[in-house]
Amino acid sequence: MKLNWKRTFIILTDVVLGIYIVLAFTAFNKPDETAKKCTRVNISIADESNNGFITVAEIKKRLVAGGIYPKGQPLRYVDARKIEERLKMSPFVKTAECYKTQDGQVFINITQLLPVIRIKADNGDDYYVDDKNSVMPNSSYVSNLIIASGSITPGFATNYISPMGKTLMANDVWRNLVEQIHVLPGGGVELVPRVGDHIVYIGRLPDFQKGVSHEKLISDYVSNKMTRLVKFYKYGLSHAGWNRYSYVNLEFDNQIICKKRPHRTVVYKPHPAPQTVNAHPSETTVKPAAGRQERTQKQQQTEHKKKTL
């Protein structure tokens, strides 16, 4: 059978042309995806309730100020990478991720640097230390954190106070028990509890040791002191009285040294005895003792003899 190449060519040409027409018609009637606008912006902040400094409103404000807030903008003009870079400029942002979806939504996911303690040093420094042991600038946002005061340098804050703060904040009891940390000039650490009227001394925080995690050394040290303090409160002060001592020293193991509060001098003024009217004075008159009465009679007799002589 002889193949008719001319007829075959015509048929193939018609098929290709038909496919092209169908695709062209479909593309013509399909809406332009690049012209679709952003209809919704979803901002998610991890750990938003854990003493962070970032809110959804602040993220929106930052993007609006930079002219890159995506809502209402064509999706093709929404630069996800530029949004991420803009948000990472904040000292309180750890990571930022932005992406678009075909239904016109833009998603922004943020993880923030969490402050663990506020530093108010004697030299006037006022800043925060985050969960990565880094210094954070001061913020107008008020956070319910433990305050560390005294002789604190930025290096001491990041290497010593930050690990201590993370240890306290990780325990609900300890976090609610300690109100303030105070560092003495010699490096000793005092705690100001929220209950009672006394100071707790825990000694110097451990120094660096070769081959051992310094953060773990401090965490173990602080955990030991706080465990002993809670037991002392439970079995000691709860019976002796919360204001019995002015200073509690936990520096040494196996003993707790307490300094008693000075006793107040109280002057008691007795009330005057009531005056009573005695109807029978003879019944209440105190008679001299028998021996004393005999001596009095003898003295009178002797004096009488002297006069008669």
UniProtKB/TrEMBL annotation:
Q: Which InterPro entries match?
A: EF_Hand_1_Ca_BS (IPR018247)
Alphabetical UniProt keywords: Cell cycle, Cell division, Membrane, Transmembrane, Transmembrane helix
Q: Transcription regulation: present as a keyword of the record? A: no
The transmembrane segments are: 9-28
Q: Where is the composition biased (Basic and acidic residues)?
A: 292-303
What residue range is the signal peptide?
none
Q: Is this entry keyworded Cell cycle?
A: yes
Q: Where is the composition biased (Polar residues)?
A: 275-285
What Gene Ontology terms for biological process does this UniProt record contain?
Answer: cell division
Region (Disordered) residue ranges read 270-309
Q: What is this protein called?
A: Cell division protein FtsQ
List the source organism.
Leyella lascolaii
